[in-house]
Each structure stands twice: as structure tokens, then as C-alpha cells.
Amino acid sequence: MTLTLLSLAIFFCVATATAAPRHLKLPTFIPRGGGLLDSDSISPDSSDPRGGSLLDSDPSPDPNDPRVDETIKLVRSAADLLNDKGTAAYPTLRTSLEYRHGETYVFIYNLNCTILFNAASPQKEGHNTHNLTDSNGYKFHDALVSAADSEEGEKWVSYFWPKPEEEESSKKWTFAKKVVIEGEEGVVMSGFYE
Q1: Residue 89 shares a structural domain with residue 156
Q2: In percent, how much of the chain has pLDDT > 70?
């Protein structure tokens, strides 16, 4: 009898939480030994330490934000340049105001999460970021590289990362697009903070 009531209570919580609007404060069942969590304790940006989001979040930033189109155009233009010129495009990506202005810059990983190019931080080039996480434990580097495996070959990824010269993390959106540089597949990216 107790087991049946518990099973029924869990079913009700799961069914209600998945069907209810996000603004309702319902308990959420996380089936990994975590039990019931208050919906105030997690947000759509909360992440599972194993990687991935605990709740479904928006797959892309606010389309009304002008930075969204600017970032997509920038990354697609950089991808075209890289596909055409290969590593000979790096000096242009590092110094041209089209690709590097203010907090805007492009960066490139290979499919093993090794940083091939970073216009803002050249000292990071050559470092492998596989399995490294943001402040919430989300393996965002791996998620960025997975853009190459997506059907479209491009996607938005959100994660939490400190702004330059800040210690506290802020939400960042990065647009990642598959690229082929001199026969090697990689991902070219750029993003912005909310």
C-alpha cells in the first residue's frame, strides 16, 4: 500500500511538472537518486554534473536581441573565410575589426575540444578543454563541439562564464558552426553575455 501511494505521488509530480507552465512552483522529480526537488532550487540553466540541463531551456537567445543576428553573421562569415583560406585566415580573424571589436571575437576548437584559435586569448591556443565545466558543472566545451554533429551543423549553446575582469559567472550565449580547416573538422564560434 505504501509503495503504491509513493508510486502514485511520484507519477503525479512528474506528470504535473511536465505539463504545467514554468511559472508554477511544483516539485520536480530528478530520477538519479536526487528525489524531489523544489522547483525554486533549480532553473532552466541548472545543470546536471554529468553534463546537460536539468530542465529544458530555450535553445537560443532572445531573437529580438540584435546581437543574435550579428553573431550568426559573424560566425558564418568566419566559417566561409576558414573554409576558403584555412589557417591563413587566422591573422584576419585576430586583427580585422569585422571579427574582433569590443568584447566580440571568434574562437575555434577541433573536434577533440582543443583550442586551435582564440582571438582574445592566444595563450589558450593548444589547450584541451574536453570535460571542463562552467560554474554549474556543465560541460559546455563539449556541447559547443557537438555543433559539428548537429543536423544543421550549427547551434546556440548557453553556459555560465565570468565576463572579462570579473570573478562571478554570467550567462553567455555562443553560436557554434562546423568548419573544415585544411581538411580537419572543427567548430568556429562567437558569443555574448546576457
Answers
A1: yes
A2: 70
